[in-house]
Amino acid sequence: MSASPASQCGTITIGGDLTVNRIGFGAMRITGKGIWGPPEDRAGAVATLRRAAELGVNFIDTADSYGPDVSEELIAEALHPYPAGLVIATKAGWTRHGPGVWQHDASPAHLEKALEGSLKRLRLERIDIYQLHIPDPAVSFDASMETLTWLKAQGKIRHVALSNVTLEHIRRAERIVPIVSVQNRYSFSDREWDFVLDYCESKNIAFFPWGPMAQQRKANDVVEKIAAARNATTAVISLAWLLRRSPVMLPIPGTGNVKHLEENVSAAAFRLTDGEFAELNAVAPKPYWLRG
């Protein structure tokens, strides 16, 4: 049997016991505009999730705040009973009050309630990877992590993880509970968290880059040049660069469109030459806050 498209870039083992292909799927974009409510094309969203599984994508990242609830519900609708080996990572720490509106809540009470909701919507007895979506400035970070540690001890979480954090957050969390992954904004043209990625690599902590193709910002001229020369899209070049950047990198490009999904997954088989990789690395992107 031939290998699946998503397996062409190899695998990563998270937490010592979860081995998945290194192209995942981010399920934020299967919701409505503003990450609010159901998608305009529900059947298309379900088809995209099912096609991801057919292509060998066995890591899906979501959150209770996507919709809210909608993304998790669609994952279960499309894929439950889940294929063997599928890992679903979800998060809590935001509440939603309208399209594009996000409010912190990483209080112990909210995290416990959010986990119960995710378990119900995803039709699971345990979440494989449960991430603090973002530290809450109004709540003790240690209290948030201690709550997740307690929920892990109850058997409702297999592994604890972090999102949108600094290096100091990671080190503080590690004093409380093992951290198996970090999810921060990162792409070819946005390398603000290089030092966090390097730390994760040194500790064999998986790194999930969100916004892996710099979202809607214009691709760097070098990316466009290489894409044209190789008859590839800038998305494929950007994802191929991420996959080569670090062995702990697990890109999670998201879409609600089957065609875009297939394009993204095709990056698993794409190989940059040594010269192309060096040329891309030589480009120093502007800091995030200086971009127009």
List the helices and strands and how they pair.
Layout: E1 11-14, E2 18-21, E3 25-26, H1 42-54, E4 59-61, H2 70-79, E5 87-92, E6 94-98, E7 101-104, H3 108-122, E8 127-132, H4 141-153, E9 157-163, H5 167-174, E10 179-185, H6 194-203, E11 206-210, H7 221-229, H8 234-245, H9 258-266, H10 274-282
Parallel strand pairs: 3-4, 4-5, 5-8, 8-9, 9-10, 10-11
Antiparallel strand pairs: 1-2, 6-7
Helix pairs in contact: 1-2, 1-9, 7-8
Give an account of the 3D structure.
This protein has 292 residues and is α/β, with parallel strands linked by helices. It has one domain: NADP-dependent oxidoreductase domain (TIM Barrel, Alpha-Beta Barrel), CATH 3.20.20. Helices cover 37% and strands 18% of the residues. The chain has 10 helices and 11 strands. The strands form 3 sheets. The protein has a 7-stranded parallel β-sheet with strand order 3-4-5-8-9-10-11, covered by helices on one side. The chain has a two-stranded antiparallel sheet with strand order 1-2. Strands 6-7 form a two-stranded antiparallel ribbon. A hairpin with a 3-residue loop joins strand 1 and strand 2. It is globular. The N and C termini lie far apart (48 Å).
